[in-house]
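User: Quick sanity check before I run a bigger batch. Here is a single chain. Can you write out its predicted 3D structure?
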Amino acid sequence: MGTKDCSRRVVITGLGIVCPVGIGVEESWGNIVSGVSGIGRVTKFDTDGYACQIAGEVKGFEPERYMPVKLIKRLDPFVQYAIAASKEAWEDSGLDRADVDPERIGVITGCGLGGLSSIEFYRDVLVKRGPRRVSPFFIPMAIPNMASGQISILFGAKGPNTVVCTACAAGTHAIGQAFKEIQRGAADVMFCGGTEAVITELALAGFGSLKALSTRNQEPEKASRPFERDRDGFVIGEGSGMLVIESLEHAEKRGATIKAEICGFGLTGDAYHMTAPPEDGEGGARAMKEALFDAGMAPEDIDYINAHGTSTPLNDSCETKAIKSVFGDHAYKIPVSSTKSMTGHLLGGAGGVEAVFTVKALEDGIIPPTINYDNPDPECDLDYVPNEARNMKIEAAMSNSFGFGGTNGVLIFRKV
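Assistant: Done. Predicted structure follows.
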């Protein structure tokens, strides 16, 4: 049984990532700071007739490096990506299973749509070949909590185990909830982050019908352009970003290398619209204020913001207004960048991937750029770190995620 102690400090000791700009933290972060785009033409299926024909696909992923071949056939890609990222994060943390009580290790993952590719595939099997040809593994492949379930099985993690399914804020919410599980004494170690793999025919058609996607098909690498005047929609991406987090006491006791501390989490609802934020960004602003309050920090303490920055006309202007409403004049002094300009939008996986990049920014003192920033938008008038990374000492950083349904999540990280 855990003990209630909301004063426990929580630190990050492991990072793992699979995303459109690389497999593993070293490759991915290297490409991010170099401004390399991971967006190209869709290769998974024929996009003839689709308004949007581009995406941020994961390239060169070899699942057999991370799990048995027999298991691969039973797992949707969103689970495979989460397992790979979790294995890297575990190895990065230096943890040894023999030294940790399995009942004190938990897993919380976030995703938006779960095994959509499996759903589409087995719907076709059902229609064309009949119900007896649908795999008995179809349901486990499709359900959103299978990522957290499989991670717990592979690592023997018997502590808190759940999934957060809050659209594009899911990864951030998962990390925030895992932070709170350790803070309240329910666990000492948690795997947490986000994962998504929905570059599918139905997803591309559905988001296309919403007019949410960029149609800059002839220039894929230039299609995601957050905060820029000529942005015309987001680019869908896939992958996973996972963290291993621990109580400070647990990490120090084993002599772990601490990358950063999670010190604030805020989540709010817009109560406004199914897919659109309020024009003044009020819900996102409250989430930022909640995170600052939770961290016991003032707006002036934040040195960098990894923005939600989707490259849609409405989101970027609303997020800019929200930042200005929270930070006042200080908003113009804070570098704000969107790594979605390079990865695309990983939906439920975005918060996990962007948390990894935010922690790396703190560690290395490098602020990643917003690429494709050519023409300023008068409505978006902050410092978006255009086109080139910036060396800068960072003590504290914020990461924003906002999702359909009006759900908002914000995390604050700081150096220890």
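Confidence is low (pLDDT under 50) at residues 1-5.

User: Great, the batch can go ahead then.
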